[in-house]
Amino acid sequence: MWKRRIAELHRADLIMGRSKTTFAHGIRGLDWSDLHLILAICRSESLSGAARTLGINHSTVSRKINAIEDKTGVRFFDRLPQGYLMTKAGHAAHEHAQRIEKEVDDLSRKILAQDATLSGPIRLTCSEGLAVELAPKLVAEFCKEHPDVSVHIEPQHTTLDLSKKAAEVAVRYAKNPAESAFGRKACAFRATLYSSRAYINKTRGISMADQNWCVAADTANWLVPLIFPSTEAVAQRTVMSSGSPLGVINAVASGQGNMVMACNLVDADLRLVRISENLEHLNMDVWILTHNDLRQTARIRALMTHLYDGISARRAEFMGKVRAGGVEILLERD
Hints:
Elements: H1 2-16, H2 23-26, H3 32-44, H4 47-54, H5 58-72, E1 77-80, E2 83-86, H6 88-113, E3 120-126, H7 128-132, H8 134-145, E4 149-155, E5 169-174, E6 181-189, E7 191-196, H9 197-202, E8 213-216, H10 231-236, E9 238-242, H11 245-253, E10 259-262, H12 263-266, E11 272-274, E12 284-291, H13 298-312, H14 315-318
Parallel strand pairs: 3-4, 3-5, 8-9
Antiparallel strand pairs: 1-2, 5-12, 6-12, 7-10, 7-11
Helix pairs in contact: 3-4, 3-6, 4-5, 8-13
């Protein structure tokens, strides 16, 4: 089916005068799995990046792209020191693959949207901080109530594209979600600065810009211009950085420096204290989202409702008003 569809799209390009490459020479030898691999390499411009995207190892990607080029007689990539760069044929394949991927994704969503049963799999994406504790707790409650539904939790710091089937449901901190997304705002989200008492005592009298900082994922820009004039200045005072917020929390708790972090991830940790009020420039909301095409799918709608109820019930923690259990928060001051 997809070989026929690929050929149809290619013939349309020839009629419109859009394809002027040697791609036509080997088009009949390509199938969707081939184009999917080519697309992954095009997007990452490297075998290692494509391997991570596809969930296979580097050598497998290398072997497959070589086999594809051998069977089609077309070279899709130039192997250069800086990475795999598309040839003209590679650009043509990339264009075809993107269109076919969109058609496949659109079809998959439409089929899934017709599912009125409370059974089947759901992929949920959320931040690592939520994925470690709160999300598993809420998902366990949900699956106990709906035993025929399975939920896979995918921790991600960046927003996965719901339109590309990376996930069916997302919990995201955002001011305005994407227009293609459908969902509900569960509660407000707040962040602030934290440190350990040991580091506070060690650095009394030293300006914040001259102290050490531990930085999680993409939060360096959260300190600009609050503490630093630029992210480059943040980097100069960063003693520890990690893609894991929990790793950064532990580093700060051990006295390595200060950090900016979501209140709901830290306020329950008695090793840490606040060193600022809530940071207004970081005010966002917690959204429960899905793609607009999936909004009527029964199991997705049920999970979104359960997540909304569970998170909105903890709005005081997300807003930095109470420690877990309702203990009042006191601001640590010099």
